[in-house]
Amino acid sequence: MKDDTKLAAAGRPHHRPAHPVNPPVERASTYLFPTYDDYLEGAKSITYGRLGTPTHRALEEAVTALEGGFETRLAPSGLQACNAAILAFVATGDHILMTDAAYDPTRKFCEKFLKRFGVETTFYDPLASKEEVAALMRPNTKVVFAESPGSLTFEVQDLPMLAEAAHAGGAKLVADNTWSGGYYCKPIELGADVSIQAGTKYLAGHADCLIGTITSADEQTAKKIYYALLQLGSNVSADDAYLTLRGMRTLSTRLSRHQESTEELIKFFKKRDEIDRILHPALKSCPGHAIWKRDFSGASGLFGVVMKPAPLPALKAFFNALKLFGMGFSWGGFESLCLHVRPEQYRTATEWREEGHVLRIHAGLEDIDDLKADLERAFAAMHAALK
């Protein structure tokens, strides 16, 4: 079954003769068992609201089908999905090998929070070779963490190589798959043990809920993920699970539009004298482009541009003139976004040498001509501020 059909069919209720197309929102804390035998058998089914309702199960089923894994569990945010997936495999005295291009809050969780409990983290170049990764592995390395493309700078990582290196050292490969929406890349097929998404982004797709997904490749891994989430007391509202599943029904259609608009915006930026470099995996100039061509079936709507050096007042004028591109955190919704980011603040294993301001851009679903006009207006304001 192809992904578009999975997105339309997965997680739909078929347990009664007449049923709704989408599972309804089932909100509950307490579930009642009709008999004592049912109570004893409860662990095999729905038992308690925090452990999931049929609404949650429907979403988990759909994400598992999309990711091609054994089982999916939900977390209340993408960040907790990352953190719980790491916690599932480490203890005092263990070591984590993490890409230097990881999402900064995940970095902080490892290098500051987990450090308090005797867990050490080493950051590696996202473009490191097999030999370089192997040299960083230790006998106590339990997790190799990848994010492909990298946060803010969009380097594409070689997941099959990382999986081989991790497994050779007895570690798990945990991959953040948010950028692809689980549609354009399949980390588990490429050897990852765990594939994570901030479902807040493309899965939900409408900028109105927070959720994370953790998909395991096998039963043993899934049990450890479930235990970690259980001990953390993680809970996702049934409403957010419903919104995410509903969003998934249109995932491929939305991603196609995001990709088309991104291609047009890249053409636009290539013609602008203010832009020095474009950061997008589909471009030959992007680090890891050949890996992207091998492992991805498409590109989403998030990318970066490096501006030629300009004073801060000019940058402020640029942002203040934008009307359609919003200035805000997160991405993956229907709205276009533009944010000033600073990769140099978050690197330790590599060095960011670009002198110009870096803009992280998400191409939304607005008309592309209107988006270009919005950027034209912003660049005009930028030049006016330089006079």
UniProtKB/TrEMBL annotation:
Signal peptide region: none
Cofactor list: pyridoxal 5'-phosphate
Modified residues (N6-(pyridoxal phosphate)lysine): 201
InterPro entries per record: Cys/Met-Metab_PyrdxlP-dep_enz, Cys_b_lyase_bac, PyrdxlP-dep_Trfase, PyrdxlP-dep_Trfase_major, PyrdxlP-dep_Trfase_small
Gene Ontology molecular-function annotations: cysteine-S-conjugate beta-lyase activity; pyridoxal phosphate binding
Entry EC no(s): 4.4.1.13
Region described as Disordered: 1-26
Major enzyme class: lyase
One family name in Pfam for this protein: Cys_Met_Meta_PP
Keyword field: Lyase, Pyridoxal phosphate
A biological-process GO annotation: transsulfuration
Matches recorded under Gene3D superfamilies: Aspartate Aminotransferase, domain 1 (3.90.1150.10), Type I PLP-dependent aspartate aminotransferase-like (Major domain) (3.40.640.10)
Catalysis: reaction(s): L,L-cystathionine + H2O = L-homocysteine + pyruvate + NH4(+)
Recorded family membership: Belongs to the trans-sulfuration enzymes family.
Alphabetical list of PANTHER family matching this protein: CYSTATHIONINE BETA-LYASE-RELATED
Protein name, entry field: Cystathionine beta-lyase
Organism of this sequence: Hyphococcus flavus
High-level lineage: Bacteria, Pseudomonadati, Pseudomonadota, Alphaproteobacteria, Parvularculales
Gene: metC
